[in-house]
Amino acid sequence: MAGFLVRRLGQSVIVVFGVTIITFLLTRLLPGGVARAILGPRASPLEIAAFNHENGFDLQGWQQYLFYVQQLLHGNLGFSYRLNESVGALLGDHLPKTVLLLGVATLIALGVAIPLGVLQAVRRNRVEDYFFTSVSFALYSMPAFWIALILIQIFASPPLNLLAPIGPQGPISTYLEPDQLTALILPVASLALVTIALFSRYMRSSMLDNLVMDYVRTARAKGVSNAGVLYRHVLRNALIPIVTLLGLSLPGIFGGALITEAIFNYPGMGFLFWDSARTRDYPVLLGITIVVAVATVVGNLLADLFYAVVDPRVRIAE
Amino acid sequence: MSVRAAVPDVPGTPGPGVPAEGGEVRVTGTTWAMAARVFAENRLAIAGVVFVVMVFLFCFVGPLLYRTNQINTDIASITQPPSPAHPLGTDNVGYDLLGRLMVGGQTSLEIGLTAAILATTFGVLWGAIAGFVGGWLDQLMMRIVDSMLAIPTLFLLLVLAAMFVPSLPMLIFIVALVAWLTPARLIRGETLSLRTREYVDAVRVMGGTDARIVVRHIIPNTIGTIMVNATFQVADAIIVIASLSFLGLGVPPPATNWGGMLSDGVGYTFAGYWWLVYPAGLLIVLTVVAFNLIGDAMRDAFEVRLQKR
Fold it and tell me: pTM for this structure?
């Protein structure tokens, strides 16, 4: 286990290192040079020289990269000249809101997708299975923004007018107030719907894979009831791959959050990223890219470690 | 029991009840024939193929039969409901919507197909070389792939689309730049097991170079994985381009694509202009579903196991 842990940790560190090289190279590709791209066409040569010195761009070749990594390690993700705030401070404000949105939506998605996948597997090739399979196939093939807009059209416009078409605004501490909570419903729902479509498909096939295993026959031969086989044996084994899936689908969920936040004006990290892309605020773009990438790597690492803990075969195979 | 039951599940081995023509065992031919038979039995997949062919005819042959002006706007006739003159009405700047769907579809399909071909070609070569050579080169090449995969697709796409002005070739390039990672990983995995096969030794004994082994022997043996993945990639690319258009970083006007039309249209949903939303939206969903159905059926036909889906 220790060997597996060390190897897997080492790999993750290398990947994060690789990500910093990519973001560093991306800044080199900026049209017109970094200082011009960030300070704008009206910046004076003096300002550009000061900017270059401050960010280590007056250094030689690879020293620029070292300077960049050194800054990152000190928690300096860059400075947004457009918003006149450091990227770190911006993230401190926006990141918790995204974590809240993602967390609630993913929990709800799991809560719906797991029973749904079990139902589909148990009733495979019957009407219910075909119905839910087609629905999740359609949801999966729809652009996420359209799903969100259909929800708005149904629930947040006449004649129903039940919910707000805009996500909660203001500081996150107010999100538990009744008004803010109702505003949270639609963003959470539209993000959860896409995730449910993906997860239930996996849960169904994971259940089906396990239903034909030898241990199922053994359990039945021992006289375990149908429900006992299903919930005590099959379900528990079928849930294991879902953990890996959760780790692997983090990038997709981040992407979904970006679109959801853009539609509902939800002031999270995805909204900030989108806003920065449209206004070409590169320091924010690259800073968030690094944060999201590190989150993805950590998510994958945790999923792998969990997998190794619950399924000893993984450790031995390594 | 039908005759089909006699067909064994393992591709590449002719069935016991099916004598090969002329007493000759033609392994490759049998693989393809069997894959084709399994595919043809899947009625959903056939429906998918028929739909894709129809969409292609609609987008590329349609404009020859149904001529509309898709360059100049017509402010005098904006957002008209469907009528004999405009079967699907007109959009918010007066373009005929049926004609617009054809032109937009051309862009969506061109981006989807070209990006999928580019990404697959590059990804397959990358993965095959990494897997075949092995050692530190494999480590280096695959860590590059891992690092790029760590950045969520949409984030990487938005950074690139913000940096470079999105023209049509640039969009294809950007989508391909993100999409080649999955085939690279898949093919590397397959190459690792294929390179120890006896036929690889045989080629080497006959004096074949490494390049010949990779290009003529290893890659052709992964064709199932390649084709399945490429099909899914077309579907993904159409969705990705739609999302980029919605986020305001798609193809610039007067060019358009289904995603752009859909995201322009949803702004008018509340005015009741349904024809601006549903035709484009349904075409996206149905085309993506069709490509996914074809991909699923090919996966069954070639018995490919993918990490994804």
Answer: 0.81
